[in-house]
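DM from R.C. (forwarded with permission)

"hey, sorry to bug you on a friday — could you get me a structure for this? deadline for the figure draft is monday and I only need the backbone to look sensible"
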Amino acid sequence: MKSGAHATHPADVGGNPTNEKMDTEQVAHHQWEKEVRVMVDTMYKGTWDRMRKMMEALPQDVYTAATYYERWALALIKILIEEKAISHEELLLKLGYTGTEEGPPSEPMYKAGDTVKVKKEYAHKTPWERPHLRTPGYIFGAEGVVERVCGSFPCPSLLAVGVRGNTASLYRVRFKQADLWEAYEGTHDDTIDVEVYESWLMPPSNDEHDKRRKTEAIKKNPHDYAKYSEGEKPQYQRVIEALKTVLMDKGHITLDALRGKVEAMDIDEIPPHGVEMCVRAWQDPEFKRLMLEDSQAAMKQTGLDESGSTTDEHKHGTLLVVVENTPDVHNVVVCTLCSCYPTKLLGKPPAWYKSVSYRSRVVKEPRTVLSEFGTTLPKNKTIRVHDSTADMRYLVLPERPAGTEDFTSEQLAGLLTRDALVGVTVPLNQ
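My reply, with the result:
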């Protein structure tokens, strides 16, 4: 039986159709991405299951737009707020969402009779959680006419997260029912009046295509991820910078410590441990047997802990599994739900390993994906894909190339790359 079931969340991309092509280029991590890793390592001591849950709880549009490390940062914010290490108010103040209780409220931007358009996204939306909305979704993007200015009131969405002192003008805006509902059965003159805060309003669009607002929630299936693609450009840099500033203000981290840990991370960008284990397995049949049967014991022999990661959770639960490539079988590793990866052995996962294209495609078209890395396998060779979705981390032991019997350890190490230990390539001269 072939399932073909659709994903239930944007994180679950295995086998989903995607328009993204494989980009096998090795991309260096940006400074802000390294800083996010340091903030997570410094501030979070819990399990990665909780961290993943916090990422999955992000608003769908945020999850889809955010890049990999932006999700880490937004999940960390949710956890730190929940643990009362920081507050909504502290972050929002750093983001400029603040007002003053002194002096009269500002003058309304609009007057009765003005045509206005409701924004499709709230200006004070916090990307780490769903906002407290007092504007109904059926008018998002719609144009209406200001029926009256109701006065100035505290902003409810900011009050909901503890930011006080903000006042905003409130309007009654009149919309034509026929502009809101695709199959409205009343007259063209039927209207509905809705109270809308100024932060939700903007001048009307000149684009005629936008004038008849159709409710997106009715027309679009929110669970249709067929064309889901991961964010490519950072969207939430201000939020990450605000988080860093709040943590420094509260004494949780210092700028010097942040810089020092980033520098240490640069030095150990791709640790040699995975390559060292594979070279030893090629040279020592007894160690190879041990590595395949009990990788934890093999790691202890090399002076590593029992995990391929650096997090507390993995030290106490995650197991390394070594899979061997043979003349008949080729192994390749993926994590379709996030990017589980033996970081202590192989360093930080490359951009392609975390990409939607790799995670969605390699489970259903592995030969095509491998070919995009320049790896062409015989048609009669079995391919085994290992989806690292829980508490296992995988290391591929490649086939030792013929003619290398007299190679030194250093020469053998020169044949191995990180990509070969994931299974998307083979040793360099094979």
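R.C.: lifesaver. The longest helix spans residues 68-82.
me: no worries. Residues 401 and 430 are 5 Å apart (CA to CA).
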